[in-house]
Amino acid sequence: MVEDRMSKDVELFINDLPEDIQQMTAALRKIILSSSPKLKEEFKWSMPNYSFNGLVCYLQTAKQHVNLGFHKGSNLQEKAGNLSLQGSGKTMRHIRIEKMEDIQPEAFTSLIKAAVSLNEEE
User: Domain YdhG-like: where (predicted)?
Assistant: First the structure.
């Protein structure tokens, strides 16, 4: 069950966010946890992080947007399809979500599953 893998600290964090950011973060959280029963939710580095056999993805909130980030995002470019993975770091990439309409559940689920599978290969 998804509820069994939810962190109280993440719940409190989301509840303290402005309403529009809270809605986007909660929706993304649900997509992430529904994408794979293997993912574990943790509150690290002042944001929700999701791991399986290492770090997989995270949710980083800002005043006007939420980033759905991938710790090994540079390895996901080809699987991103029409999604725009941003970032110029060595490995991390993110998708910037500015409104609820930017959330693409099927595409995000597919990308999250691909990110989990990267950690299965290790």
Answer: 23-116
Q: Where are the domains of the chain?
A: 2-120
Residue given tokens 């993912």 in the structure block: 39
Q: What is the 3-state secondary structure (H, E, C) of 26-40?
A: HHHHHHHHHHCCCCE
Fold of the CATH domain 2-120: Aspartate Aminotransferase, domain 1 (3.90.1150)
Rounded to the nearest 10 degrees, the angle between the axes of helix 105-120 and helix 19-35 is 50
Query: What is the four-CA torsion angle of 99, 105, 109, 112, rounded to 10 degrees?
Result: 0
Which position has the higher pLDDT, 31 or 77?
Answer: 31
**Integer CA distances (angstroms), 25 to 20, 45, 64, 122, in order:** 9, 16, 12, 29
Q: Residue 121: pLDDT above 80?
A: no
Residue 109 in tokens: 């689920």
Q: Hey, how many other C-beta atoms are within 10 angstroms of the C-beta on 42? A: 17
Contact predicate 49/43, CB 8 Å? yes
